[in-house]
Design a protein that fits this description.
It is a single chain. This protein is of the alpha+beta class and about 130 residues long. It contains two helices and six strands, in the order αβαβββββ. The protein has a domain of about 90 residues: Immunoglobulin-like, CATH 2.60.40. Helix content is about 15%, strand content about 35%. Strands 3-2-5-6 form a four-stranded antiparallel β-sheet, with no helix packed on it. It starts with a helix and ends in a 13-residue tail after the last strand.
């Protein structure tokens, strides 16, 4: 009986070791869904389709030179542009993406007040915390 319990304990010990965390490599690039909204719609201002925002652009600003990732014509029902962008992962560095608006005359706005941050850092080693 003791040999059976020892064998069972050892087999459980070996099988549970496979449940430990495994290293996951950061992909070479990633696909991200980004959304930006024109200021007129975000702040419930009147929208003039003849002179208002016509296009929104997504720009990665943490690299040199900065990279335009995507741009699109706004949806006039809600003033938004949604884009799926493929981004090169920079291991250890975060990517910062901002939005710019363009009106029908071609004038470009200041950068958006907020940004999307993609964290490309590897996760740290797991730590068991006591309660």
């Amino acid at each position: 009986m003791n040999k059976f319990l020892i064998a069972l304990f050892l087999s459980l010990s070996f099988s549970t070791s496979t449940l430990a965390a495994t290293f996951v490599e950061i992909p070479e690039n990633g696909l991200y869904a980004l959304k930006c909204q024109a200021d007129e719609f975000a702040h419930s201002k009147p929208y003039n389709p003849a002179t208002g925002t016509s296009e929104l652009s997504f720009v990665r600003i943490d690299v040199t030179p900065v990279q335009e990732l995507a741009h699109g014509t706004i949806d006039v029902s809600n003033g938004t542009v949604v884009a799926l962008v493929s981004m090169t992962v920079t291991p250890g560095d975060d990517a910062e993406v901002v939005c710019f608006a363009k009106d029908r005359s071609g004038n470009v706005s200041d950068r958006s007040v907020d940004a999307a941050i993609m964290d490309f850092s590897s996760p740290g080693k797991g730590v068991i915390k006591s309660n």
